[in-house]
């Protein structure tokens, strides 16, 4: 099986899992904090996976896909999106102080966090660069 096919199947399965996890957690997990963490992590994972899928089909369509150079990027980028989604939740909730219980656990509040987590996963490179700039300023 060609590496292109394996990466395509991996991204497809990862996206399906990202869409199933929140549905399952909605009905099975009753702790609001844990459910919120699942939602924002999955939102970051979906953002990163969509970015990977976009790059994947563009590179294949252009005939520029280099499996040896990019295979690990395609594998790790969705996982990094998961982690980045959780950390944007912690950064906004804890560091900046947007952690009002009423805001966090309402459907509108968690949707705002999920939207930011999605954007963080989708544009992780920009997020990491901005985070590095902020950390240089703080420390």
Structure description:
The chain has 139 residues and is an all-alpha fold. The chain has one domain (3-138). It is built from six helices and no strands. The protein has helices spanning 3-28, 32-62, 67-95, 101-105, 107-122, 124-138. Helix 1 runs parallel beside helix 3, helix 2 (32-62) packs parallel to helix 5 and helix 3 (67-95) packs antiparallel against helix 5 (107-122). The N and C termini lie far apart (49 Å).
Averaging pLDDT over every residue, what do you get?
Answer: 86
The proportion of residues forming helix, as a percent range, comes to over 70%
- Terminal CA distance reads 49 Å
Helix-strand makeup class? mainly alpha
Q: Unreliable runs, pLDDT <50, ≥5 residues?
A: none
Number of strands: 0
What is the succession of H and E elements? HHHHHH
Rg measurement, Å: 16 Å
Q: Beta-strand percentage?
A: under 5%
The tally of helices reads: 6
Oligomer designation: single chain
> What is the overall silhouette?
flat
List the domain count as a whole number: 1
Q: What about the largest sheet? A: none
């Amino acid at each position: 099986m060609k590496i292109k096919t394996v990466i395509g199947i991996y991204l497809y399965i990862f996206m399906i899992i990202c869409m199933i996890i929140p549905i399952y957690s909605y009905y099975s997990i009753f702790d609001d904090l844990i459910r919120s963490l699942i939602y924002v992590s999955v939102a970051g994972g979906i953002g990163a996976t969509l970015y990977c899928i976009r790059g994947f089909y563009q590179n294949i369509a252009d005939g520029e896909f280099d499996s040896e150079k990019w295979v690990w990027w395609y594998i790790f980028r969705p996982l990094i999106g998961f982690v980045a989604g959780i950390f944007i939740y912690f950064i906004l909730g804890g560091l900046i102080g947007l952690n009002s219980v009423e805001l966090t656990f309402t459907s509108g509040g968690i949707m705002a966090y999920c939207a930011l987590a999605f954007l963080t996963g989708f544009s992780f490179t920009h997020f990491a660069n901005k985070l590095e700039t902020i950390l240089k300023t703080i420390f």
